[in-house]
Amino acid sequence: MPVSPNGLSSELLEELAALAAEKVRGEGLRLMGEGGLLPELAQHLMQAALEAEMDEHLAAEAGRSGGRGSRSGGNMRNGYRTKKVMTEVGAVTVQVPRDRLGTFRPRMLPAYARRTGALDDLVISLTAKGLTSGEIVSHLAQTYGMTTTKETISTITDKALESMAEWRTRPLDPVYPVVFIDAVHVKIRDGHVANRPIYVAVAVTADGYREILGLWAGNGGEGAKYWQTVLTEIKNRGVRDVLMLVCDGLSALPDAVSTVWPQTVVQTCVVHLIRASLRYASRRDWAEVARDLKPVYTAVNEDEARQRLADFDATWGKRYPSIAGTWQRAWSEFVPFLGLPDAVRQVVYTTNAIESLNARYRRAAQACGHFPNEQAALKRLYLATLALDPTGRGRQRWNNRWKSALNEFDVLFDGRLTAGRV
């Protein structure tokens, strides 16, 4: 007998199709929510499963006691209790069978359970995609006819905290060509609402993929001790070497990097320098300012870059005198970029994968307005990470020319990349 991937026979599927057709001809077909076909089907299936569980339980007890339902103390059925359960297709009311001895514990609906696991997964998925608790409550009411609360949604998403802890301590690769440190600022209510940075470490793997290494809450005044703790944590998860670490003007970070990975080159993020420059310019001039800055970071060496920055300042200095100063203050951390081969520059500069990640994080954070504590903020961004990749690693191909960059990295860094993978 042909069966579907879910184990349903073709005859049963045809019967369900006939039932749906009958409803269409009658009162109209509604799949989910109150009066829907799927909740009705779910109710029948759950009821049948509960009855089967009870039969199995009584048979097992009869075998142990030597007489099912005997007056000497054997167990037997003892009526039902009504239970309303929220499922992923709508609210379902079932009659949970009871036994006389009170030993029946249904696996399908454990005691005190008011939701199925699939519904919890749905709520977590909707949260990961950026919906707020209020929006999820509204969505469940409109689509599934469910009445729930923001507090219930928060309780469901708290289940992600355990998996988040595992994700933040999972083993990592022994060597990464590049690690980017970036920050998303969120509002956290800690006595009063204040902007707090949530730092994200994003790596390019030796296979040319983006991998999100972790998330850390900061307080805006991080020193070398803080960064050494973060980097040591990454190292303890198996990262023996990082060839380049790219960041945005985090003054205490270079010292911490030299302590944890002495050979790592610290590089100021070019995109962040451009972003910082545009803050001083009128929006109408952004395109031209960005165009005239490009010769600075595409120069073949430091001397040419200095000349191009001087040319830029001659053009824009009177209108925006702070832009050239921004580059000059970051010059010592920007210079290593100029010594990189073109293939490596593409990896270090091409930050579309980071920008798309930050955009998703910002949307997730802004949708909530502010968070009651840093754990709630971390949970929200972790769920946003799951939306990118169910494994939580946020894997995404970095660029299509990785092989040439891989060879350049290995030559530039004296074989440390391939040696570290052994």
Number of strands: 8
Distance between the termini: 52 Å
CA gyration radius, whole angstroms? 29 Å
What class, by secondary structure content? alpha/beta
Largest sheet: 6 strands, mixed
Indicate the overall shape.
elongated
Can you give the mean pLDDT?
Answer: 79
Strand order of the largest sheet: 7-6-3-4-5-8
Number of domains: 3
Q: What is the helix fraction of residues, given as a range?
A: 40-55%
What portion of residues belong to β-strands?
A: 15-25%
From the structure provided, what is the oligomeric state, counting identical versus distinct chains? Answer: single chain
Order of helices and strands: HHEEHHHHEEEHEHEHHHHHHHHEHH
Unreliable stretches covering 5 or more consecutive residues: 67-72
Number of helices: 18
Protein name: Mutator family transposase
GO biological process, one term: DNA transposition
Function: Required for the transposition of the insertion element.
Pfam family, one: Transposase_mut
Overview of the structural elements:
It is a single chain. This protein is an alpha/beta fold. It has three domains: 31-110, no CATH class; 115-157; 172-420. The chain is built from 18 helices and eight strands. Strands 7-6-3-4-5-8 form a six-stranded mixed β-sheet. Strands 1-2 form a two-stranded antiparallel ribbon. A hairpin with a 2-residue loop joins β1 and β2 (90-99). It is elongated, with a radius of gyration of 29 Å. The two termini are 52 Å apart. Mean pLDDT is 79; it is low at 67-72.
